[in-house]
Amino acid sequence: MSSLEHPSEVFVSNYGSFLGKKSERLVLKENGQTVLEVPFYELQNIIIETSGASISTDCIKECMQRGIPISFLSSTGKPYATIVSPHLTGTVVTRRAQYEAFKDKRGVQMVKLFVEGKLKNQVNTLKYFAKYRKSADKELFNNVQSVIDKIETTAQELKEITGNCINDVRGQIMSAEGRAGNLYWQGIKLLTAGKIDFPGREHAGAADPMNSLLNYGYGILYGKVEKCLILAGLDPYAGFLHVDRSGKESLVYDFVEEFRQPVVDRVVVAMINKGIPIEMEDGQLSQKTRRDLAERIKERLDTAERFQGKKYRLQTIIQMQARRIATHLRGEARYKPYVSGW
Questions:
Q1: Closest alpha carbon to 92 in 67, 63, 57
Q2: Residue 243 has what DSSP assignment?
Q3: Which of 78, 269, 285, 339 would you label with 61, given CA atoms 20 to 30 Å apart?
Q4: Could you give the strand order of the β-sheet that contains 45-48, starting from the edge strand earlier in sequence?
Q5: Does 282 have pLDDT greater than 60?
């Protein structure tokens, strides 16, 4: 379906779509019929997700003169081409700001906002699942509330951390993030007790069903986040909290933090609590369970959530947040983390 979800971004996904120019407006046609007209001055990005679309040279020329990139995605969502003007420097300016921010307070601010979003979403995820136990299991509800209170105390400590560059405060921020993480997983263990044997959070190499679900789900999310960062003109390998390492997409790991809980954890905990069968084969999720999880995460990404006073699909919010990182680093606007409802 072709759609306009945000005034600044047009998605084209139907086979046979045509993009053209009519006076000062972008025109999208399907089967010869006009389905969308948008003034060029409102556009920031065009994303073409189908292999069967065409676009006029007039439209391309207008987009390039106005600095509107046209991006092409494969059927799996992986970017394979972007048309940008050879005379524009938007991406260069953004990446220069990104690299320079590593050495000053912008990098510290950026990381604190990512982690602030993560901690708030941990709290809201616990609240989301605990609210159904408030009357059914008062003791469990109170125990989870105690965990929530401790995470919120840690979030207050995070606000007090200051430094001139991320290297000065990386240890302090990671300590706060780690302590909150331990509390959060204690809360998740309480909420899934009796449903699954959860040994605690383990990363790569985990062979238990719960951690296998989480790790596979995060893998799907990394791909989505990387695409959004690239489309926003950012370098996914140049992060702030996660140090540079060859082949390591450090900014992906930084940015993904505020989306782990609302996108993946919500899906995994719901699967466990609903008693959805989790099949394991040779220490890994079975193909059937992987497909089931992937489909549920896709549905979750398509879910509309309230953000900035309106409702957007979660995957659109990720793209909007990626662009906010770029504008924050360029000093044009302040980044605010996405916080899910509960």
A1: 67
A2: P
A3: 78
A4: 3-6, 9-12, 45-48, 70-73, 79-83
A5: yes
> Quick one: average pLDDT of 166-189?
96
Q: Is beta strand 25-30 parallel, antiparallel or unpaired with respect to 45-48? A: unpaired
Which has the closest alpha carbon to 13: 80, 78, 73? Answer: 73
Among 156, 149, 180, 319, residue whose Cα is nearest residue 261: 180
Instruction: Find the DSSP H helices in 43-135.
Output: 57-65, 90-101, 105-130
* Closest of 231, 209, 203, 198 to residue 73, by C-alpha: 231
For residues 234 and 94, the answer to whether their CB atoms sit within 8 Å is yes
Cα 147 versus chain centre, distance:
25
Q: Which of 186-190, 245-249, 307-311 has the lowest mean pLDDT?
A: 245-249
* φ and ψ at residue 46, rounded to 5 degrees: -125, 130
d(CA 222, CA 167): 24
Instruction: Compute the residue count for the chain.
Output: 342
Beta carbons of 312 and 320 less than 8 angstroms apart: yes
Burial of residue 41 (CB within 10 Å: 0-12, 13-18, 19+) is: exposed
Distance between CA atoms of residues 127 and 203, nearest Å: 24
Give the model's pLDDT for residue 49: 80
Q: Reduced to 3 states, what is the DSSP secondary structure of residue 163?
A: coil
Alpha helices (runs of H) in 193-286, residue ranges in sequence order? 209-231, 250-255, 257-259, 266-273
Instruction: List, for residues 61-74, the tens digit of each pLDDT value.
Output: 999 888 788 888 77
Task: Check if the beta carbon of residue 169 is closer than 8 Å to that of residue 163.
Answer: yes
DSSP characters over 301-326: HTSEEEETTEEEEHHHHHHHHHHHHH
Q: Is the pLDDT of residue 233 over 70?
A: yes
Closest CA to 319 of 183, 209, 228, 215: 228
| Interatomic CA distance for residues 258 and 260, integer angstroms | 6
Query: What are the φ/ψ torsions at residue 190 (nearest 5 degrees)?
Result: -60, -40
pLDDT at residue 252 is higher than 70: yes
Contact 173, 161 (CB under 8 A): yes
